[in-house]
Design a protein that fits this description.
single chain; alpha+beta; Nuclear Transport Factor 2, Chain: A; signal; Tgt2/MlaC_sf; ABC transporter substrate-binding protein
Amino acid sequence: MLTRTPKRNALFLVFCTFILCAALFGALQASQFQIPNEEESKSFVEDLVKQGMEVANRETAGQDEFGQLLEKSFVTREIANFVLGSNGRSFTPEQKERFRQIFAKRLVKIYSTPERVKTFRNTTHKVESAAKQIDGTMQVKTLFSFNDSPSSEPAKVYWKVVKKDNELRIFDILFEGISQLLALRSEYGSIFTSGDKGNNDPQKFLVYLEKEVGIKTAP
C-alpha cells in the first residue's frame, strides 16, 4: 500500500491543480470570455451574494425565485459544454442543445432546493480578495460565517468570474477548494456510462435526465 508523505501530498495537489487549470483554461479559451478586473468582480460577487441571501431569508421566497437568480448569474451554456466533456463527441448538434436545456433546468433544481437555500440563512459574509487565475478567470474569495455557530471557522467560497457580452457571470464555484464544475462533470460522466441510466447512449442518457427534471421526452 502506498503511503502519502507530506511531500507526496504536495505533489499530488500540484498535479490536481494543474489538471484543473488546464481543463478550465481550454474551456474558457474556446468560449472566448474576457477577464473582468478585480474591483468589478468583487462588486459582482457582493451583489450576487446579497441577492441570494435576501431571497433565502424571506419566508415567502419560492424555489423558482432562487432558481432565476442562478440562471441569470451563470454561463450555463458554456458550463454545460464543459460538463459534457469528451462524451459530447457522440452527440448530434440537436442532442447537445437538448442537453444544455436539461442541464440548465437540472442545475436550478439541484441548487435551489429548500435545504440549499436555507444554508444562506443566518449567515454573514465578507468579500475578501480577488485575483486573476491562470485558467483565465478572476477568482473572488469570500468568507461565510454561521451566526448560530460563532466558534466555527468561516467557510471559504471562491467564485470564478468571467465576462461575457460585457456582462459578468459565474463559471465555477469552489467550496473549500472543491470545484463544483468538476464535480458536475464527474457526476454527468457517471450517469452517461451507467448501464441503467446512460449506457454510453446519448438518447438514453437524455431521456433519463428529462424524466428526472420533468421534461417531456423528445422523440
